[in-house]
Amino acid sequence: MDILTHGLLGGTLAQSCSRKSEMRVAAATGFLAALLADADALIRSDADPLLVLEYHRQFTHSLIFIPAGALLVSLILWPAFRALGHSPGFRRIYLYALLGCATSGLLDACTSYGTHLLWPFTGERIAWSIVPIFDPLFLLVLAAAMLLGLRWRKTLPPRIGLLLAAAYLAAGWFQHQRAEDAIRATILQRGHEAGRLTVKPTMGNLLLWRSIYRANDVYHVDAVRLGMGGSARVYPGGTARAFDLPRDLPALAPTSVLHRDIRRFDYFSDGYLALHPDDPLLLGDVRYAMLPTSTRPLWGIRLDMRHPDVHAQFETSRRMPREEIWQFVGMLTGAD
């Protein structure tokens, strides 16, 4: 999730287990420790634009990294707190750092991006897809819990905040099941056989969901708006032909750098690859788009066939025309 939510969750968890005299130290330590995992964004190379994708949410987000990450944070913060005269001791600092670090990978696994929780034992990218990458309501609950705990110097507000956060994640799981059931019913009505199906929440809410399923060689993209009382409305979206490397680029040598980069991007995208509908030289991750019914990918790699031995460029596009903004709002509110 976004970096602020990470910090708030780590700080709130550490704060909920702290002593009254250590409330501020616990919150600060947990907050900063929860940010450590996202330092993997610094692993990048100008010569190889895909390197940052390989390491994003990798070893720093794994469960096995938590004790080592907590130790690193403690070694940095302990002398800083001692210099300020607020150190409760190294063991207490380590405890708060451990709690903060423990939240990062698990929280990211709740999103749809994919997280290497079990690295190095498996290369599986875990994505439960029950909460958006950014959710203002989730963030506000944690922020209120931390601030009230600091103001009153009590562990009750952060503990209540954590319970509410857990309830919100449970609601996301419930909504995910509802959205998946609605799409499976739609697939049956269309007479399709879905080989793969992914359902994920759209930005900032648990009401509107994006669905992508593959039937034969075609990806079908739809939006599902979940109302109260069990009602669900499906908004049919676009389709995109699934990318097939031997079929679509038969002249590309398997030993070329571009061929290897396409394979790397395919792994990062969990196999959901399709060419941009308006740009046939941009290979995109069809799981993500600004509009939940669109097949225009949020990011992709440039297929420069003139230079197959140069690393592919990674491109993003977060532009959303005004008419699409209103379409999004209409779907979010359940309009026809």
**Could you say which structural class the secondary elements and strand pairing correspond to?**
alpha+beta
Largest sheet, if any?
Answer: 4 strands, antiparallel
Using the CA coordinates, give the radius of gyration: 22 Å
| Domains, number | 2
Distance between the termini: 31 Å
Strand order of the largest sheet: 1-2-3-4
Note the beta-strand portion: 15-25%
Task: Report the average pLDDT across residues.
Answer: 96
Number of DSSP-assigned strands: 8
What is the count of helical runs?
A: 10
Bulk shape: globular
Poorly predicted parts: none
Helix content: 40-55%
Order of helices and strands: HHHHHHHEEEEHHEEEEH
Word description of this protein:
This protein is an alpha+beta fold and 336 residues long. It folds into two domains: 170 residues, no CATH class; 145 residues, no CATH class. Helix content is 45%, strand content 15%. The strands form two sheets. It has a four-stranded antiparallel beta sheet. It has a four-stranded antiparallel beta sheet with strand order 5-6-7-8. The relative contact order is 0.10. The mean pLDDT is 96.
